[in-house]
Design goal:
The structure holds two protein chains of two kinds.
Chain A lengths: L2 H5 L6 E2 L2 H10 L7 E4 L2 H11 L3 E5 L12 E4 L2 H11 L3 E2 L2 E2 L3 E5 L3 E12 L4 E7 L6 H7 L4 E6 L7 H11 L5 H17 L2 E12 L4 E3 L2 E5 L8 H4 L9 H8 L3 E4 L4 E5 L2 H13 L6 E4 L6 H13 L5 E8 L4 H13 L7 E7 L2 H8 L5 E2 L3 H12 L4
Parallel strand pairs in A: 15-17, 17-18, 18-19
Antiparallel strand pairs in A: 1-13, 2-7, 3-4, 3-7, 5-6, 8-9, 8-11, 9-10, 11-12, 11-13, 14-16
Chain B lengths: L8 E5 L4 H13 L2 E6 L7 E2 L2 E4 L2 H7 L4 E4 L3 H13 L4 E4 L6 H14 L2 E4 L4 E4 L3 E4 L8 E8 L3 H12 L4 E6 L10 H10 L5 E7 L4 H12 L4 E6 L23 H10 L4 E2 L2 H12 L1
Parallel strand pairs in B: 1-2, 1-5, 2-4, 5-6, 6-7, 10-11, 10-12, 12-13, 13-14
Antiparallel strand pairs in B: 3-4, 8-9, 8-11
Helix pairs in contact in B: 3-4, 5-9, 6-7, 7-8
Chain lengths: 391, 288
């Protein structure tokens, strides 16, 4: 929508690292095992020495399945902590390099539970999910044994009360100190609300052999739209963890998603861009990106969009699909012509324009080396023919 | 027609801002009956001949208001919607994109309790063709006709309306319900209104990946709908876990997949178009 340009906050979903999530949870009263971040094996050793106990070394990367990939290891001595940290730091987990590890006191586990908060779109409320089956992927539990997950939809105005938390603990059959477990759940919701999370999860929520309750692992994803309220958290964004083109596009205020094909896609309106991707796929092509220039875009916006899309070395051709409403097709044409005149258009460009100022746009583009087609489907077929279909 | 017509008296919240002024002009040109505007701190001004008040309460004390359209920036947008609901405005159209989700969770529930209907956020609004436009869509592509449209998208809706208009079929009322994860009104809330509207002969439902509103709509259609419905799903080729422009257009785990939506439509006997042109063909076929 047109308000977006002026008011769009971040476009990325902001995933926090485990140690950052735990810091937040601790602030709201969730007990977490003592831990510190290390960037070098020496630091890991020093932290282990300081704790003077068995520690766990955990890779801090924004992907799931760290454990299976060898990114989580126990160390009994500081020397061992040094060795384990050396093995994990620099490790590649699903395409991401491990740059830091969390060194935390190991916990003696008696029970492992799951507690998570997420938005239930259909119910339009935040739902608490609680399960005795913790320490494993909750989506697996949901698929295998959905009855093992107990749900409670939280009244946004009343919040989550201790008695409701106690009832949930009983309902889910968690064993351990009832009041402490309930306090953790209440604190988890307060944290979720307090930082404007979209996901907050403790997995596993551990009852230790000596009866303590701690969040042994935690995950928080923040709501981008609310980051303006949390400038301290907005700073936690790690640009290197994002695709550089997504970073650049976001600086221009574009909604951009990098995809794995070779046809650059530019359109106005998220729905139209999604439709354009679908069409290109249908006729055998593979889009290289999703890029929405938004509503009411002027020539310079289109020029910048072309700049971002053509910076992608995967792109072998570009398809610009415009339905002029508030956006004027002639403004789009002017942006394309500027890019052309500056020698930016090194790859074939296919366009389909309709709607407001369609005729003016066509006149402007007459005789220019831009391939114009009257319908989206014809333009999709043309660009696929030019760059070659699915490789 | 549903929800709005040429008699609907409209309040514009955020009327003095750039977007608010621009679209107020567009709506006035379309013939929309705009009776007042609100911008806190700008009470007493006039914008395009429309009197501006500091609060919605003052505006409704001086004017009969049937609907409000909101162009207030995201941080204050949910509060603006609540202000309208508390002042008793029965229909609230929230255009703003980028509203914090928890603000919407709270506002949607409270507005419902107060008895107002909220459309959006992150939506293009409502248009009853050749009657009134309470939104930001290009009015000229909507020719008066037979088809009601409910959509999670903006531009794609304009495309569909233009194609239906060019084919001589035309539209009755088009409602853009918004692209956010939590919206005030969903497909299944509006289908009963089209079902009872004598002018609407068929409904086009433009959905997209993410959430389960299409599935809920399909279930309702299967049990209750007396008129033909044609479906469309955007983002069918989108990868999982990626947000496709709209905050709500994201497949999470097994929720929000195109397969699930297509299956639900198939079970409800709703034909699904793959292209905009096919929407027109399927509507023609349904109308016989």
């Amino acid at each position: 929508m047109p308000l977006a340009g002026a008011l769009r906050q971040g476009r990325w979903s902001l995933n926090l690292h485990e140690y950052q999530a735990k810091e937040i949870l601790a602030r709201y009263g969730v007990p977490v095992p003592p831990g510190k971040v290390a960037y070098t094996p020496e630091e890991a050793k020093r932290i282990a020495q300081e704790f003077g106990k068995r520690v766990v070394i955990k890779a801090q990367v924004h992907v799931g399945g760290r454990g299976k990939a060898g990114g989580v290891k126990l160390a009994d001595t500081p020397e061992e902590a040094y060795e384990k940290a050396r093995a994990i730091l620099g490790m590649n987990i699903k395409g991401l390099t491990v740059k830091k590890v969390l060194v935390a006191e190991a916990v003696d586990i008696a029970k492992e539970y799951y507690a998570g908060l997420i938005l239930d779109r259909a119910k339009k409320r935040v739902v608490l999910m609680l399960s005795k089956e913790g320490g494993v992927d909750i989506e697996e539990v949901a698929a295998r044994n959905p009855e093992a997950i107990h749900k409670f939809w939280i009244d946004p105005h009343k919040g989550f009360r201790p008695f409701e938390a106690r009832e949930m603990v009983k309902r889910a059959g968690l064993e351990g100190n009832l009041n402490k477990l309930a306090q953790v759940l209440v604190a988890l919701y307060r944290a979720y609300e307090g930082v404007d999370a979209s996901i907050a999860e403790i997995n596993p929520l551990v009852v230790t052999t000596d009866g303590q309750i701690v969040a042994a692992d935690a995950k928080i994803v923040l709501d981008d739209n609310a980051l303006f309220r949390h400038p301290d958290l907005a700073e936690l964004r790690e640009v290197e963890a994002e695709h550089p083109l997504e970073v650049e596009a976001s600086n221009y205020g574009f909604a951009y998603v990098k995809l794995d094909g070779n046809i650059g896609i530019i359109g106005n309106g998220a729905g139209l861009v999604m439709y354009t991707l679908d069409l290109v796929n249908r006729v055998g092509g593979r889009p290289a990106n999703f890029l929405d220039i938004g509503g009411g875009a002027k020539a310079d916006v289109v020029y910048n969009a072309l700049k971002v899309v053509l910076k992608d070395p995967d792109v072998k051709g570009v398809f610009i699909n415009i339905f002029g409403g508030i956006t004027r097709a002639d403004e789009v044409a002017k942006g394309v012509i500027r890019a052309l005149e500056e020698g930016l258009l090194t790859k074939p460009v296919v366009m389909r324009v309709a709607g407001t100022a369609e005729e003016e746009a066509k006149k402007l583009l007459e005789g220019k080396p831009i391939y114009m087609y009257p319908t989206s489907i014809e333009a999709a077929k043309a660009i696929v023919a030019m760059v070659g279909g699915a490789a | 027609m549903i929800l709005v017509n040429r008699e609907t008296r409209v309040l514009v919240q955020g009327i003095t801002g750039r977007e608010g002024q621009f679209h107020t002009k567009q709506m006035l040109d379309y013939g929309t009956k705009i009776v007042a505007g609100v911008t806190p701190g700008k009470g007493g001004m006039e914008v395009l001949g429309v009197p501006v008040y500091d609060t919605v309460k003052e505006a409704v004390a001086n004017h009969e208001v049937d609907a409000s359209i909101i162009f207030v920036p995201a941080p204050m947008a949910a509060d603006a919607a609540l202000e309208a609901a508390h002042a008793g405005v029965p229909l609230i159209v929230l255009i703003t994109e980028g509203i914090p989700t928890l603000d919407m969770v709270k506002a949607v529930e409270e507005i419902k309790t107060l008895g107002s209907r909220l459309i959006g956020g992150n939506c293009p609004g409502i248009i009853s063709a050749e009657e009134t436009k309470i939104g930001i869509m290009p009015g000229h592509v909507f020719k008066r006709g037979k088809v009601g449209i409910i959509s999670r998208s903006g531009t794609l809706t304009y495309e569909a309306a233009a194609a239906l208009s060019q084919a001589g079929i035309g539209t009755t009322t088009t409602v853009g319900i918004g692209g956010d994860p939590v919206i005030g009104t969903t497909f299944k809330d509006l289908l009963p209104l089209f079902n009872e509207d004598p002018e609407t002969e068929a409904v086009v439902l433009i959905g997209e990946i993410g959430g389960s509103d299409e599935e809920e709509a399909a279930a309702w259609i299967k049990e209750n709908m007396k008129k033909p419905v044609v479906g469309f799903i955007g983002g069918r080729s989108a990868p999982k876990g990626k947000r496709m422009g709209h905050a709500g257009a994201i497949i999470m785990g097994n929720v929000g997949t195109p397969e699930s939506k297509l299956k639900a439509f198939a079970e409800a006997g709703v034909p699904v178009a793959d292209t905009i042109d096919e929407i027109v063909e399927l509507v023609k076929k349904a109308l016989g």
